[in-house]
Amino acid sequence: MKKTTATERKPAQISFAQKRMRNLIKVINGASLRLLGLSDPENSRLGKLARKLPRPRKSAKGPDGLKRSKGLKSKYIDLSQFNLDPFIERKMVTRSFRIFGRIISGVIKSRRDYRKELASPSRPPKPAPREFWNEVIARAESLGIGLVGFAPVDENLIFTSDFVGKMNRLYANGIVLGMEMDFTAIDSAPGPEAGLEAMRIYAELGVATNRLADFIRSRGYRAIACHPLGGPILYPAMAVRAGLGEMGRSGLLITKRYGPRQRLSLVSTDASPLPETAPPKLGISEYCDQCRKCVSACPAGAVLKEPVAKENGIITRIDQDKCIGYFYEAMGCSICLKVCPFHQRGYDRVIKTRENSPIESTTTKKK
Questions:
Q1: Which of 84, 180, 313, 319 is the least crowded, having the fewest Cβ atoms under 10 Å away?
Q2: pTM score
Q3: CA angle (344, 345, 347) in 5-degree steps
């Protein structure tokens, strides 16, 4: 008698009620994505409407000091492609709806505030004293943000298209923000718990980013809240410039406090001058060059064995086409976070072990 594989049994394990729930989720998910213009960025109703609207003109009425992209392309993530079956099977639908609803409301607010910023009249910026930045840090921490750094906005890191936030201009200075993901949830990767945890942090950090931007505006400065889902700028590279950590082999920011276990956002502002930030020498990148666990563990083979430097100076560490397919199927994947020693053991233990006995790379062991 032929044995039935788990893949072959799967359709029979989904009840009629679950099938109805799956269809309902697809309808609601599709409607939400169409509302945000994310189901098809070119042909959605909002996308077509946006092309008909007059673009803001450069004039004395608009805010000064806005920076634009120099041509960096972003990868479009089609949220409608995520495999939602695991959430149905594990009865996580209610939690998922709450989280996605919070993400949508956060994105809508950041878009609305961005349009207000572009429409607001020009005014000379006022200097920002050190006390103001201390207030910003304290306010961010009160909102649950664990990482705060400062760096000028680099136009080479701004994307030509922000498919989620619909932003293409930013103020001169950036406040880079990071929020920790739950250790246990990431340790369960790949699976719905890890995927939903990533979405939960997108939601919570999105709310916190909007509120921090509101706080900065209340102090008389301009601010644009860049939502962590998508984003108009390359967050990990900005975080490195802000001294929050170093780039790992997997293309993720690795920090001393959380390892690779954080999501990032940014508030751009005209407040100046920024606090002086000297990026620390953490030894993370050197460790990653020897470790390479994420290279071996990636089921899609998406982590490049050697980084590729582009003409614009951006270094690519991930084959995005390979990554995104598994990312959809595993609802966020997170395997590269799970296997990272900086997640498993923490920065201090990893670096101390390395100093006592230099590691041997996994690729070297296989030879």
A1: 313
A2: 0.84
A3: 115
